[in-house]
Specification:
The structure is a single chain. By secondary structure, this protein is of the alpha+beta class. Strand 2 and strand 3 form a beta hairpin. 29% of the residues lie in helices and 11% in strands. The chain has a domain of 60 residues. The chain has 3 helices and 4 strands, in the order E-E-E-E-H-H-H.
Length: 95
Amino acid sequence: MATETDFLLDENDDIIIANGDLLIGESLTQEVSLILRVNQGEFKNDPLIGANLIQLVKTNVSNSELKKRVKLHLQRDGKDYNQIKDFINLKRQVE
């Protein structure tokens, strides 16, 4: 898998500026995180991308349905789920 680089964001999703320049670095995990956290319509360049995972809070969605949704949205951005699945924790927190 090729290394992806982009502008890096801090924990508040603000662009990091270091020494007066935008900080650029490895961005794969950052991109995956954004795809999984956003809802469809939040990215102007691709309004269909966004796993809408917030919809699944307090639902009885199966692990296979959750995995299917994650795979679909990562694939839409050209990412191979099988190559990055070890970095993703799909276990749901039950209250």
